[in-house]
Amino acid sequence: MSIYREKLRFRNRSEPIKIAIPVNLRSIFPSKSLRNFFAVVNVGMEVTEETSLEMIHTEVVEQLKKKTEQEKLQQGLNHHVKLQNMLTARFVPAILKYQAIRYGYKSYGERTKTITLTNIGNISLPKDVSTAIEQMEMVMYPTKKSPINGGICSINDRFVISFARSIEESDVIRAFFTQLVEISGIDVEVYSNDGG
Known about the structure:
The chain contains 7 helices and 5 strands, in the order αββααααβαββα. By secondary structure, the protein is an alpha/beta fold. The chain folds into 2 domains: about 1-115, no CATH class; about 120-195, no CATH class. The protein has a 5-stranded mixed β-sheet with strand order 2-1-3-4-5. β3 (about 115-120), α6 (about 125-130) and β4 form a beta-alpha-beta unit. α1 packs antiparallel against α7. It is globular.
C-alpha cells in the first residue's frame, strides 16, 4: 500500500507490486547442509485507489499459503536440479555457467520483484548472551532494480523492521511506518543511520 501511495498512483499505467519473500526450506525438507537452503516466492497484486489494506492482506496470505506448499516448492527444486543435471550443462565450464546464472538473475530475477522482504523470525540466544543484547537488525541490501529492501527479526520481545535503500527518497519507508502506527496504534521508534 505504501509503495502504491508514494510511487505508483501517479503513473499512467498500472503495474503489479511484487514482494520477493525468501522461504527457509530446512523446515520443510530435511537437510544437513551448512549452505543456504532457501527458495524465493513472489507475492503481490495490482493496487488501485479502490484497493483496501484488508484486500491486500487476504490476497497475500492466500498466495503465500499456495506458493509455500511442500509440493509447489518441490516442483521448483526439481526444475533447478533438472537444469543442473542436463547433459549439455555438464560440458560447459563452471566459469561460463556462473556468468550465465549471474546474467539470468540480473536480467530476469531482479525484474520479477518490486522489493524483497525477509523475516528471520525470533532469534534465540543463550540466556547469558541475550541479556546483554537490546536489539538486532536484519539488513537486506538493496540492488539497482530493487532500491529498497526490508528485513524483519525480533529478540527479547523487541520486534525490528529494517529498510536499506540505495536511493535518497525515504517517502515509501516513512509512509509504511506512518500507516503502521495509524492501523495498529502500537508504539514505534524510528531511527536512521543518516539524515533520511
